[in-house]
Amino acid sequence: MSRANVRVTPDEAESIITWGQVRGPDGRTLLAWVRFEERWSVEELHETAWVELAPAAFVESPQVLNRRASYAFSWACTFCDRLDAEQVDDLELVLEGEPALHFRGQPELRLTSWGELVVSSRLGPLFEEHRLGLRSIAGTRSWLQVELGPVCSILPVHPCEIRSDPCPGCGHSAVARSDVPRRRSPFQEPHIHRIVPWVAQCLSGAAMAGWSRERIGVAGTVAASAVHVAGARVDVGHRTELLGMQGAPVLFARPALVAALARADAFGLDARPVSAPAASGRHLDLRASSGLSR
Ligand SMILES: [Zn+2]
After folding, report:
1. Distance (Å, rounded) from C-alpha 267 to C-alpha 110?
2. Residues 13-43: pLDDT tens digits?
């Protein structure tokens, strides 16, 4: 087995996959495993209305120590385990090392497992200039949390995969990201990991960043009959497993905010394009028109 890191355009990637799917005399395919990391220039991202921000591969998500205490929880639905969570207090985080006053060389953009955006305090004015609110992080002045609300709705087309029937109470289905093709057997078909842009509809014309209305990876149970009082407070101290079932929204930002962060040398999140729903109902494949670049 040999490994190669190569930089390719989308067209070249397609031909590598086509070539890799050829079987040798021993019945094995030529490529066992391919992972594509797509890098987009700020100019290319300006071609899209929204950009997805996801943690960079080398950046760990900060751990939230006080999620139970920093949110007020209530049942979102009478049938399923979805919670409404309203933040009522500052987050307390474990962030590896306390960053120096100047952040050069440190990832300054962090995303928690619940989609909370945590940024270095150096970047506070930049987010305020883009009309985003800030709240403090407990016990530190080095970091701030950016206040976010829903700005986009993810459409149920690839790579969004619906994994459950709609809940009879709220109508929500469990959704997941499915852009890892199901070609798992390493010696039959190549295992190809390639990010496909979400197809999302804008809910807010004004905000520069925010969440998807959908939470990805919700895993709670759906009862056959009404079991909760919707809107009633939930003491998650007795049901801590509920917190792990809530999934996380996707973080979206306007390309102008991403460009400002790039100019400020802030890093820690990867920016990817988001496809807009086309008028015909089919979505645009942005990769067809944009090349790869750093
Ligand atoms: Zn429900």
Report:
1. 9
2. 888 878 888 888 888 878 777 777 778 888 8
CA of 208 to the centre of ligand 1 (A): 30
Collect contacts of 189-193 with beta carbons under 8 A, ≥24 apart.
189/21, 189/29, 190/17, 190/20, 190/21, 190/29, 190/31, 190/32, 190/33, 190/34, 191/32, 191/33, 191/34, 192/17, 192/34, 192/35, 192/36, 193/34, 193/35, 193/36
> Is the N-terminal amide bond of 277 cis, ω within 30° of 0?
no
Sequence-distant (≥ 6) Cβ neighbours of residue 164 within 8 angstroms: 173, 174, 222
pTM of the complete model: 0.83
Question: Which residue intervals of 21-58 are DSSP H helices?
Answer: 42-45
What does the block give as tokens for 133?
């609110």
Cα 30 to averaged position of ligand 1 atoms, centre (Å): 46
Of 140, 60, 132, 149, the residue nearest 93 (C-alpha): 140
CA atoms of 4 and 36, how far apart (whole Å): 12
Q: Which pair of structure tokens corresponds to residue 238?
A: 């007795």
CA–centroid distance, residue 59 to ligand 1 (Å):
33
Give, as one character, the DSSP assignment of residue 103.
-
